[in-house]
Structures are given as C-alpha cells and as structure tokens.
C-alpha cells in the first residue's frame, strides 16, 4: 500500500516522503479500512518534529483520524460489515491507503456527509467532547471561551457548544478570522491582535469553561475572566507549558484547572468515549448542527504541502489528505 513516512524519523515538512509498505491485516476485534480521507492535525506536526512520539503499539505512520470503507473484518467483530462507510479514531497510521483499527473506535459516517468531511471528524469531535463536555462539564446556558476559533478544533467547539445550548466567546488572529468565527455562531468574536480580550470578555459577563490551546501567554487572562466554579481545560501549550498560576485566585473563585491528551488513552477508555460521542454528539452531526469545515484537500503524496499549509496558520477549518 502507499503510505507517507518521515524520512530520518523526524524533520521538517519536506521529510514527509511517499513510500510502499505491506498491507496491514485486521486482527481479532479489529477492522481494516480502505482509507479515502485522513485528517491532518497539529499532533501530526508535533510527531514529525519529534515532540509527540507514537504510544507503544501504535503505527509510526502519522494520522489520527480517517474515513473510508470497511474491507476486512477480524474475529469477534459483530457490528461492521464489508463496504460499511466509517470514520475512525486512530493511534496512528492514517497517512496510508489502508488502516487497521479497534472496531470499537469506529463510527458510522452520518447521512449527508461525504468521506472527506467524515475524515475531518473523529479526532476533532472526540477531543472537544472529552474536554469541553466531560472534563469541562459545559452545560446549557453556560459560556465557553475558545482560542484559535478558526482551527478545526475551534470551529468544531463553537458548533458543539451552540448545539448544546451554550454561549461562545471566540478569539482569532485577525479581523477576517474573527468574522468567520462570528458567522459560525460565536456570540462574541474577538480579534486577538487588536481587541482588549480581558475587558471585552468581562463586559460580556465572563466565562464558565475555557478550552485552552495556548498555554502560558493566556494563563493570566483565564484566571481573570473565569467565573466562580469555572473550569479551565488545557489541551495544548502552543505558547509554552510553564505558566504562572495565582493559587489564591483559584481558591477564591473555586476554579478547577485540568488537562488531558487523547492519543495515549487505553483502548477501553477510547471505546467508552466513542460510544459517548455517538450517543450525544453524533445526532448533532446528523442534524447538520455540527459540520466540519474543510479548508483544503491534498493528495496523500502531497502530505508535506498539507503540513506547510497547517503550519502557516492561515487556514480556516480542517486540512484533509485524500487517497
């Protein structure tokens, strides 16, 4: 099968190189997917750079989400059959023509979505659900703060929060991106380059949950704008992982500070999360309330160009590889 490898193990985007490998075989409890689309995510860049190694047992090939057709079934799999269209959460291996995955980590492609859109869903929706609705416990009527609102995670978080009846404060870098987030449903959309974020968010009434992909640079902001009993959920540290936290302020406001990663979770925990996503968030997708905005597609062999596009930071939505 055709795959994309990292020449030398780590490197720049140009290190992504087309190659050939044997087709994988579905083992007990697994399905093999004929990949039609694979989402490109920032953890892929981190792995390529040597900062996010694959967990034990995972493929060294990049790619955490795919969509396609089931073409091989391992022993003990009862739900899926050959030809079923699915999308799936992977520990790695998505940048390839075939991917093997725990059958419990697959979801049906919702009606009305093509496989390119579906390939942009699993990692993003699972990340938002696990962190905003489980760790962050966002409720109807509460307010969520999202940074990087025009990223795949940002767009999806806006839509999922709105589908759940919450309000959204979004920040983006630039007026055009702020307008895109507003058009998607953000109740307050701010330009991080020019707006007074703290003043505007406080005037809006503060927030109950923060989905933090920034880290150090916004730590003071989050402590200032979170309401009493607020939840601060860290999923990335793009500006650095060492932040100054005023413990007295956390105590006075009863703020919960937490964080998580998705890829390293045990298989059973991922299966539990997938089931929860299918029960709660998949109906939002089926109803059209959550739709993955695809910024651009690239053929599998042009994965390096896809990474450069993502690294440039000018995209609005998801970038997807196609086979």
Structure description:
The chain has 323 residues and is of the alpha/beta class. The chain is built from eleven helices and 15 strands. It has helices at 42-48, 115-119, 122-135, 152-163, 175-184, 197-204, 219-225, 247-253, 267-280, 282-286, 303-312, and strands spanning 2-6, 16-20, 30-40, 65-73, 85-89, 98-102, 106-108, 143-146, 167-172, 188-191, 207-212, 226-234, 256-259, 294-299, 318-322. Strand 9 (167-172), helix 5 (175-184) and strand 10 form a beta-alpha-beta unit. Helix 3 (122-135) packs across helix 4 (152-163). The longest helix is centred in the middle third of the chain and has 14 residues, at 122-135. The N and C termini lie close together (11 Å).
List the helices and strands and how they pair.
Layout (H helix, E strand, L loop, with lengths): L1 E5 L9 E5 L9 E11 L1 H7 L16 E9 L11 E5 L8 E5 L3 E3 L6 H5 L2 H14 L7 E4 L5 H12 L3 E6 L2 H10 L3 E4 L5 H8 L2 E6 L6 H7 E9 L12 H7 L2 E4 L7 H14 L1 H5 L7 E6 L3 H10 L5 E5 L1
Parallel strand pairs: 8-9, 8-11, 9-10, 11-12, 12-13, 14-15
Antiparallel strand pairs: 1-2, 3-4, 3-6, 3-15, 4-5, 5-7
Task: Give a quick precis of the structure.
With 323 residues, this protein is of the alpha/beta class. It has 11 helices and 15 strands.
Query: So what's the oligomer here?
Result: single chain
The shape is: globular
Rg calculated over all Cα atoms: 19 Å
Write down the secondary-structure element order. Answer: EEEHEEEEHHEHEHEHEHEHEHHEHE
Helix and strand composition category: alpha/beta
Instruction: Please give the alpha-carbon distance between the first and last residues.
Output: 11 Å
Low-confidence stretches: none
Instruction: Give the fraction of residues assigned to helices.
Output: 25-40%
User: What fraction of the residues are assigned to beta strands by DSSP?
Assistant: 25-35%
Tell me the number of helical segments per DSSP (H or I, 4 or more residues long). 11
Mean pLDDT: 96
Largest sheet entry: 7 strands, mixed
Number of strands: 15
């Amino acid at each position: 099968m055709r795959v994309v490898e990292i020449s030398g193990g780590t490197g720049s985007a140009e290190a992504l190189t087309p190659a050939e490998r044997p087709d994988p075989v579905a083992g007990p409890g697994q399905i093999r997917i004929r990949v039609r689309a694979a989402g490109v995510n920032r953890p892929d860049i981190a792995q390529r750079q040597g900062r996010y190694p694959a967990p034990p047992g995972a493929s060294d090939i990049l790619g955490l989400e795919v969509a396609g057709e089931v073409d091989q079934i391992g022993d003990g799999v009862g739900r899926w059959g050959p030809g079923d269209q699915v999308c799936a959460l992977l520990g790695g291996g998505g940048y390839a023509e075939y991917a093997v995955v725990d059958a419990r980590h697959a979801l049906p492609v919702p009606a009305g979505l093509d496989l390119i859109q579906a390939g942009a869903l699993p990692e993003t929706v699972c990340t938002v659900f696990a962190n905003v609705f489980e760790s962050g416990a966002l409720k109807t009527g509460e307010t969520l703060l999202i940074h990087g609102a025009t990223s795949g995670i940002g767009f999806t978080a806006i839509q999922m929060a709105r589908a759940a009846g919450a309000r959204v404060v979004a920040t983006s870098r630039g007026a055009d991106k702020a307008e895109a987030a507003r058009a998607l449903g953000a109740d307050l959309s701010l330009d991080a380059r020019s707006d007074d974020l703290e003043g505007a968010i406080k005037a809006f009434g503060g927030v109950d949950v923060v989905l933090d992909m920034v880290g150090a640079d916004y730590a003071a902001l989050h402590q200032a704008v979170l309401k009493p009993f607020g939840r601060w959920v860290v999923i990335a540290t793009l500006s650095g992982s060492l932040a100054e936290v005023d413990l007295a302020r956390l105590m006075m406001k009863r703020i919960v500070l937490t964080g998580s990663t998705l890829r390293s979770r045990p298989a059973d925990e991922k299966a539990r999360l997938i089931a929860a996503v299918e029960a709660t968030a998949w109906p939002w997708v089926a109803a059209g309330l959550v739709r993955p905005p695809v910024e651009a597609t690239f053929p599998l062999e042009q994965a390096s160009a896809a990474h450069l596009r993502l690294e440039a930071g000018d995209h609005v939505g998801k970038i997807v590889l196609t086979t």
